[in-house]
Every structure is written in C-alpha cells, then in structure tokens.
Design a protein that fits this description.
This is GntR family transcriptional regulator. Pfam families: GntR. InterPro entries: Tscrpt_reg_HTH_GntR (IPR000524), WH-like_DNA-bd_sf (IPR036388), WH_DNA-bd_sf (IPR036390). Keywords: DNA-binding, Transcription, Transcription regulation. By secondary structure, this protein is mainly alpha-helical. The chain has 5 helices and 2 strands; from the N terminus they run αααββαα. The chain has helices at about 15-30, 40-50, 55-65, 90-105, 110-120; strands spanning about 70, 75-80. Strands 1-2 form a two-stranded antiparallel sheet. α1 (about 15-30) crosses α3 (about 55-65), α1 crosses α4 (about 90-105) and α2 (about 40-50) packs across α3. The longest helix is centred in the last third of the chain and has 15 residues, at about 90-105.
C-alpha cells in the first residue's frame, strides 16, 4: 500500500506529528482519502516519511480520538468520518502546496510565480 502524499518539514516550527495529522485531515476532507480508505500501517508511513513510528502513532491516535480514524486488528487503520473542523478544499490544497514548495527549498516568491505561471497557462 502506498502512503498518501504527505510531506513533513522538520524546519517549519510545527511538530512533525501535527504536520502528519493536519495533512491527513486535509486529504480526508478533500476526498483524496474517502471514508473507508485504509491507511498505511504506522511503521510503513513512518518509514516512508523518515519519522519515528511514535510520531505517526501520535497523529493516528489524535485522529482516532476525534472519531476520524478507527483501528482494528484485521482491517488496520481506516478513515471512519469526515473531520468536523476541516478546512475548505482550496485552502487544504494551498497548504499542501506550500509544504511541498518549502521542502524543495523554494522561496515564497518562487512558489507564487510557479502558481501564477500555471494559473494563466504559461
């Protein structure tokens, strides 16, 4: 199973577990991970992201507490509900883009120029 598109930037000041949690919320609210979707195991997602398993486990636990995820022995971790506090899809996409742009070392100006170029079709 491949991991959802999540990018963690350890230098942005937000705890890695929180970045994972927030990006999962955006992926779920945006329909990329619909209800019933099976998530990667904690170990697999941690390995894919280069994080400690406890970091991913905390993100999953937080979402379980909120009722967004459920975990069972045979089914693994599954999306159970839409987050009640989910951002709008455009905001979620923008946040994900910013995280990727930062991970690539792009400045704010470079990131905005890239968006403008694609928006106007250049």
């Amino acid at each position: 199973m491949s991991a959802p598109r999540i990018v963690v930037d350890v230098d942005n000041g937000v705890a890695p577990w929180r970045q994972v949690r927030d990006q999962l919320v955006r992926l779920i609210s945006g329909g990329v991970l619909p209800i019933g979707s099976r998530l990667p195991t904690i170990r697999q997602l941690a390995a894919d992201l280069g994080l400690a398993a406890g970091t991913v486990a905390r993100a999953y636990r937080e979402l379980e507490t909120e009722g967004v995820l459920t975990t069972g022995r045979r089914q693994g971790t599954v999306v159970a509900a839409l987050p009640s506090h989910a951002p709008d899809p455009l905001s979620a996409a923008a946040a994900e883009y910013v995280a990727v742009a930062r991970s690539l070392g792009a400045s704010e100006g470079e990131a905005l120029n890239a968006v403008r170029a694609h928006y106007v079709g250049e």
